[in-house]
Amino acid sequence: MSDFTIKNLNLSSISADFNQVFNFCVPEGQCLGITGPSGIGKSILLKALADMLPHQGEVFLGDVESQMIPAPQWRRKVALLPAESQWWCDTVGEHFHEFDETLFAQLGFEKKVMGWHISHLSSGEKQRLACIRLLMNQPEALLLDEPTANLDKGNQANLESIIADYQKKYQIPVIWISHDKPQLERVCQQLLVMNKDHYELRPLSGVQS
Amino acid sequence: MIHLTPWDLVIASGMIILLAITSLLLQLNIARQLTIAAIRNVIQLLLIGYILKLIFNTNNLFLLASIACIMLLVAGYEINARQKYPLKRWVGFKVGTSALFLSSFAMVLLTLMVIVAPTPWYSPQYAIPLLGMLLGNTMNGISLGMDKLNQSVYQQRAIIEQRLMLGQSYHEAIKEIRTESIRTGMIPIINSMAIAGLVSLPGMMTGQILSGTPPVEAVKYQILIFFLIASGTGFGIMLAVWMIAKRMFDDRQRLDLAILKVK
């Protein structure tokens, strides 16, 4: 697959508070962790990378820059999992084109989940289903915004391994926002620590997939 | 036809005054509004009565066009009034007025030139009442549809963004909201078509019958008007909803609610 490269990314058009310029690269098959105090703009940064917010600078997946292809196509390639997933139909099944038995089973769901009502799901179930929904689009890069914040230990490990499997299989770059230090050390090879007007990159020992 | 004397209207206004006094005694707080509305009603209608008399006598196309323009601009402005999440004033006026213009004027021109075809085609006796009915109803429809659209998009913005994140185009992400908004705007006219004759006698038909037109003749006109209003309203709402929905996204299909007054 391809490296994910950010060149001179500037978010000052969203708010004057975000005045730093980002330059970093997530090589294929690797994971970059992002951490930092709440409200510092981690989620904003991720949304901009998915071209969901106006920004200056360039974002490359391989040699494709985000503005070179239509926005929906970019968002299917560079897939963002938001901290809180949203559902617009009544049942789970209406949000999926097809049923992928292995993927659903890995996150602890049987086929009957497709008939469940969204209003009866726990936040943990929603998050796991959102992850499946995202992976079924076959993304070429993943942007994860606190993907395991609502999950218990068992489901957290499940989700981590699903993402690791997918990452390994397709050798895709991943960006992972988390406040959980041990988790970042488990999954990431690089860490970006965000502060108000500067950031720093540190190597991490995470097992490379 | 029996002509009304000023004395007849005085008796009717006596009823209004009686209602105002009763509501004052019962402290219903509507006496003031009721009185103002009744006085406005008299002044506005008398004024338009004399203006219509003047226009009917001259048969002047320019004069007619000016009146039509004023009617259009007022309706275009009123569309955006009384909305829960209104569009910014200029955007709302532009979208509303152009949707009204395209749908209502097209319907009126079709009627005047092809269907009823009076001589001359711009005969004000036909043109002004037709345009008034179309503008009034289309304005209501667009206003309702717009209210539903703006409110739904504002309340469901997280869902729309989620759908965009999953790679849906803005068309897909807003499809259900758009459909619902158009349906909402169409409900009043569909209802009144469905119950016409069973529950209510439509106002125009009543008026024609009162002034001595044979009922079947009045019915034919009423059917024509219903069909014109329904198509004019439908096309007007579709145009307005499509135009606004498009303006709620930027060139990279990001949800951008800068056109709403609230943010």
Task: Give me some keywords for this one.
heterodimer; A: 209 residues; alpha/beta; Rossmann fold; 4-stranded antiparallel sheet; 6 helices; 10 strands; 23% strand; globular; B: 263 residues; mainly alpha; 2 domains; 9 helices
Task: Sketch the major β-sheet of chain B.
Answer: none
Arithmetic mean pLDDT of chain B: 93
How do the strands of the widest beta sheet of chain A line up side by side?
A: 6-7-8-3-9-10
- What order do the helices and strands of chain B follow? HHHHHHHHH
Low-confidence residue ranges of chain A: none
What's the CATH class label of chain A?
Answer: Alpha Beta
Instruction: Give me the Rg of chain A, rounded.
Output: 17 Å
How would you characterize the overall build of this protein?
The complex is a heterodimer of chains A (209) and B (263). With 209 residues, chain A is an alpha/beta fold. Chain A has a single domain (4-86, 140-203), classed as Rossmann fold. Helix content of chain A is 28%, strand content 23%. Chain A is built from 6 helices and 10 strands, in the order βββαββαβααβαβαββ. Chain A has helices at residues 42-49, 71-77, 101-106, 123-135, 153-170, 181-187, and strands at 4-10, 21-26, 31-35, 56-61, 64-65, 78-81, 141-145, 174-177, 190-194, 199-203. In chain A, the strands form 2 sheets. In chain A, strands 6-7-8-3-9-10 form a 6-stranded mixed sheet, sandwiched between helices. A 4-stranded antiparallel sheet of chain A has the order 2-1-4-5, with no helix packed on it. The longest helix of chain A is centred in the last third of the chain and has 18 residues, at 153-170. Chain A is globular and about 45 Å long. Chain B is mostly helical and 263 residues long. Chain B folds into 2 domains: 1-58, no CATH class; 60-259, no CATH class. In chain B, 77% of the residues lie in helices and 0% in strands. Chain B contains 9 helices and no strands. Chain B has helices at 6-25, 31-58, 61-79, 89-115, 124-155, 157-165, 170-195, 203-210, 215-247. In chain B, helix 3 (61-79) packs across helix 4 (89-115), helix 7 packs antiparallel against helix 9 and helix 8 (203-210) runs antiparallel to helix 9 (215-247). Chain B is globular, with a radius of gyration of 22 Å. The mean pLDDT of chain B is 93. The A-B interface holds A 50-54, 67, 70-73, 75-76, 79-80, 82, 84-88, 133-134, 137 and B 156, 158-159, 161-169, 176, 250, 252-254.
